[in-house]
Amino acid sequence: MIGAEAMSVIRYRPRGAREQATAWIGMVIFLGSWAMMFAALFFSYGMLRARLPVWPPPGTPPLPRLLPGINTLIIGLSSVAMQRGLSAARRAQAAAVLPAIAAGFLLGLAFLSLQFVLWTGLWRAGLRPEGGAYPSVFYGLTAIHAIHVAVGLGGLGWLLTRAFFHAFGPARNLGLRLWTGYWHFVGAVWLLMYLTVFLI
Amino acid sequence: MTLLLAPLPEKGIGLPHDASLHGWRIDALINETSVYVGLLFVIMVAWVVLACLRHGPRHEARFDHGTSTRSIAVGLCIAGAIFFVVDGPLFVNSLILARDVFGNFAKVEADPKSVRIEITAHQWAWVARYAGPDGKFNTPDDIVTFNDVVVPEGTPILFQLVSTDVIHSFNIPNMRAKIDAVPGMVNRVWFEAKETGEFDIACAQHCGLNHYKMKATLTVLPRPDWEKWAAEASANSARDYDPDDREAHWGWDWSEHARI
Amino acid sequence: MQVIPSEERAAHEELQPIHHEPKSFFFKYLWSLDHKMIGRQFLWAGLGFLLVGGLLAMMIRWQWAFPGKPVPVLGSIFLRSQGGAIGPATYMTIFTMHGLIMIFFAITPVLIGAFGNFLLPLQIGARDMAFPWLNALSFWTFALSLVFVILSLFGELGAAGAGWTTYPPLSTNVGTPGSGQTWMVAAVFVTGVSTIMGGINYVTTVIRHRAPGMTWMRLPLATWGLWLTAILNVLFVPVLGSAALLLLLDRLFGTQFFIAGATASVSGGGDPILFQHLFWIFGHPEVYILILPAWGIVSDLLSFFSRKPANWYRGTVYAMIAVCVLSAMVYGHHMFLTGFTPLLGQSFMLLTLIISVPAELLFLNWLRTVWQGSIRLTTPMLFSLGMLFVFGMGGLTGLYLGATATDIYLHDTMFVVGHFHLTMAAASFVASLAAIYFWFPKMFGRRMNETLGKVHFWITLVCLVTVFSGQLLAGYSGQSRRLYDPYQYTFLKHLLGVNRVASYAAFLLLFAQFIFIYNFIRSLIAGEKAESNPWQVSTLEWFTASPPPYHNYDRIPTVLRGPHEFADPEVRRRLGRDFIGQAEELPEAMPPAVASAG
Questions:
Q1: Please, what's the b/e burial string for C460-486 (b: 16 or more CB within 10 A of its CB; e: otherwise)?
Q2: ipTM greater than cut 0.90
Q3: What mean pLDDT, rounded, does chain A reach?
């Protein structure tokens, strides 16, 4: 096999069920932590919005709903793809894993690209961070979220590389499981952000 | 513990002289609490010292986990008692004082004798504005002073404060008054002086390099003297009024932020 | 007696296989995966920064005792350009860095990084943390934050100077432009990440790696304290992270989360008070984060050195949990004077006064633990009793600050400073010393000198109480916080005497620590060798070698009882001593004939 020698350099240690459960608990706590961070960001948004009589403030270019709506769909599909990859691995359907992760990865990439389009569009329309609380909230929250998406993409890319060299299977899917959990989290945060920042 | 060193005015240690009408209420609450606090602390220390002396290495330890119902009940009762006896008065009195005295802006606003002052806190000075005879702010007869707040005795003095840059805190220890000045917000505080004299106004929130000398003077005059001062200052203001000096017209409409 | 099925025991062994001890320098010292080594790394870093923070404090005290005079030694090294004296700008940096260093780079690494790491696996009967790689990463992330701290000192427009609380707009470009403040905010963010990593590890390890028979209610109270601290860390440090992130966005990208009023955009700026909410939602749990390990450690040590079970163990656990639950609900008492609605003030006051109840319960348990005991005044015991003294004093002074009326006068005065120095600085410092003296034999395999320890204790305690009483007194007399020159004010002119006395006590406190440093270093090199259980106590770590082998326990122990089984008459009858280890088998009763003969 192509990568057999390469893989021998990265030591693999089979993990029993107990150790997997430990890793999963760690992941849950990590996500709890990150949820608190995003909760604080949403709290900030809420407080800043409540203080201003009119939101968006008069004279501000309005935020689009279609583009971020499409992005919500994209990241949702991306989560679906990753979850399917995970189930395939658990059910020993090795062949289905790689395409699923690839789809998740590409959709994630598309999400970031469209975020970039969103930002540049609004920037050109005159929405700048110095403009006050409203643009600060928009750029700040979406940028912080995007950083987390980028980290997730890094993880998915790594999983993709691993899937390429060896099969994920029922006994060997801890990394896939953890990153998929993270990816769902990032998607859920986006959904909340879309609802509260763009829709309401 | 140290609070039972109640005022040693000769040494200047202890609560600063209280020249306000209602400040004594805060002082009384502090001193009352200090009695309980001191007592609890002394009991605790005595307990530990006694234990070390009487239940030292030669004493045989008792095999007791403290889990008997009686033991637990005693513990909870003591904790509860301390809570109600010590924390209780603090809580109840604070509520009453907030509603009826220090937070009772409605009463002070309704008092026709009260004097209203708008304060802008800057890095690093206090600028005050009085409405003048017309009772309206931002008009030619306003009196504007720099690090110098002049008020009559025996009259409620109402303040609205803003900051133009960072957070400051308007602090007059001799009047037991203190409130933050926050950019983007209008805060309020009031007191009534019961003596004449000169007192310090200090900044109580770190605001940069010269925070330590952001000092102003509060001058309390007898009412007739103050009226004379106000009339004179107002006349001078009106005479020197410059309609083009936009920056000098920083006053705001009082009633917008009176929150009645 | 609980019977642990052999499959469960085997499962524990499988979960924690014995790893080979590393041989290379890199894996042994630099990227160690061993919690004991990582704990030591945190200890050295923490103690080093404790000294730095202490020296900064000495400079503040010097300024108040001898305003404007050149500082001896430190002045000629660091303040050459100002003739050795402290100017207002330097003063701002000094008190800012003192606070930040002490909280994030001294107490946190010593109590949580060092003792958390060292003790948790040992006390629960585990071989290591759940995630050894994450553990190593948490230390090096912490080290990275130290680099940021040092970088912040060299900013062109000066180092950080907005107070440890970093309130905007002072901490934004409006109040403190320049890279110094920015690097410092980034340092706090990075150290927060390190703390969260550690927290994830500690929480998971205690959940998953407890030895067979080690039920929740048999954990040493030190473990409970450290575990609850980790939970608070995991929940609330991220809130600080978000505040720091938003502040960085304001400083670096021109956003206006915290800029308001005249300096904000016309269309509606942000809110400086928002930062205070975020900061204190973290900040109040943070003070419990810093004290919970101390509470736990002292609860155990008081029992150990009274040779008596800890009074109502469950009560102590419930009290600590209650404090954790309430910790984020009381934060508004830091903001009583910001002008928020009176209803918020009343609610926060009520909750703040309520949180004093579990603390009272802790005290009652401590007092009743030592009563009717057989007290041995060893150095760790003295420091534990010292903790009761300073925390008692400090905790009681908190009452005045939790009530809105009395807080009007006392807010932002040195009274607040005295309060938190007693409860946070003195109590944690004293508890850290108790912990160091107590676990030194286990960590380093040698004993520290008891006499020097006792001398160190008495001087330290008297000095701590004097300095911080001086602060309380100054604040009660009206001295505000963070004043470069308090004597400007008529109502403070006479406080020079009080401040001088407090300063002399502070200088003596500094010198007294050299007794400790000497004792520590000498004992490391030439101290009497320690056996496994020199203090004759019951928790698991004392039943393996001093220091423990790389894998901690040759065989994972099976726990049979709680951690405070002292003075049990059955034990005395059958084992001939007043304590029994948590995993120690109690032999069958001897036949009456043999017993009476022996």
A1: bbebbbbbbbbbbbbbbbbbbbbbbeb
A2: yes
A3: 90
